[in-house]
Amino acid sequence: MENIKLIVDSSSNMETNQAANLEVVPLTISFGRQDYIDNEQLNLKDFLTNMNSNRIAGKTTCPSIQTWLNALEGSEKAIIVTMTSGMSGTFSSALQAKAIYEEKHPDSQIVVVDSKSAGPELAIVIHGIEEMLQSEIRFVDLEEEIARFRMHTHLLFVLQSLHNLSLNGRVSPAVAKIAGLLKINLIGTASKEGKLEPLAKARGVKKAIREIIKYMEKDKYQGGEVIIDHCENEKDANTIKEKILANYPNAQVSIRPMHGLCSFYAEEGGIMVGFHE
User: What SUPFAM superfamilies does this protein's entry cite (predicted)?
Assistant: First the structure.
């Protein structure tokens, strides 16, 4: 298939790759009277240090319509994959950019995909699209094929700290404090509606990892691609990888550090597991 540009937002923890015609569009994270652009220039160590000492609710800002238009510039055909519309205006701003771009360039075709997720599941979807582009599929059939593929991709996560979620009113400060003191990990998923949904609580990391493997099997995991993203927690990411490979020796499992946006929500010790069944 002819050259098609792939565009994804920075919640995917991916990096721009010109050889693969892939561009990552950054979100912005704000706290402590400072804005952090979630791109390759972000100093993650400083970002995490400042975030851990911050005591006021922060916020994230989706890419502007103009940022998406800049990424689309020069494309005849493009596929945009965004983080869930259930938590961000990113999908909405990408849709508006698509409408403006197609009006200016009547021969262009842009597909915008709401991943209903974040983090490594977006990367799994992008990899699925890259495979589709290697096949004989027509561009007009891609949207339907991507939707079909997405029915078999999932996200699970483990949170060791609820500090930011409590600052932002998602959980009460008392619950966050008790969870920290008792070393309670929150295991969750991205629901079909694209909301972050708690599944279980586990005391200690070992139990949390067992829960992750259990929920992967519940989601019909049978050896498909897995991407494990971590925030300063390569050790536990490796343990999850080893457990998956023990059961599925041929599975393709990769580990990556989270970028700014996912680190903001998952915090230090956090892990996100994206996978295709």
Answer: DAK1/DegV-like
Query: 130 and 96, same structural domain?
Result: yes
| Whether residue 103 sits in one domain with residue 178 | no
Distance CA(9)–CA(31), nearest Å, equals 20
Same domain, 19 and 122: yes
Mean local confidence (pLDDT), 219-240: 98
Q: Is the pLDDT of residue 167 over 90?
A: no
The CA-CA-CA angle for residues 83, 87, 93, to 5°, reads 60
The string over 53-87, giving b where at least 16 C-beta atoms fall within 10 Å of a residue's C-beta and e elsewhere, is ebeeebebbbbebebbeebbeebebbbbbbbbbbb
56 domain residue, yes or no: no
Q: Are residues 120 and 226 in the same domain?
A: no
The structure's pTM equals: 0.94
Hey, which residues does 189 pair with through a beta bridge? Answer: 156, 197
Q: Which two tokens stand for residue 96?
A: 């508006």
Q: Are residues 143 and 83 in the same domain?
A: yes
Say if residues 270 and 233 touch (Cβ distance below 8 Å). yes
CATH classification of the domain holding 266? 3.30.1180.10
Q: Which of 41, 9, 34, 36 is nearest to 23 (CA)?
A: 9
Decide if 156 contacts 215 (C-beta within 8 A): yes
* Continuous H helices in the chain: 44-53, 65-72, 90-104, 120-134, 142-150, 163-167, 173-181, 205-218, 234-247, 260-266
Q: Which of 21, 12, 59, 64 is nearest to 39 (CA)?
A: 12
Percent of the chain, pLDDT > 70?
98
Last residue of a domain, one of 93, 126, 150: 150
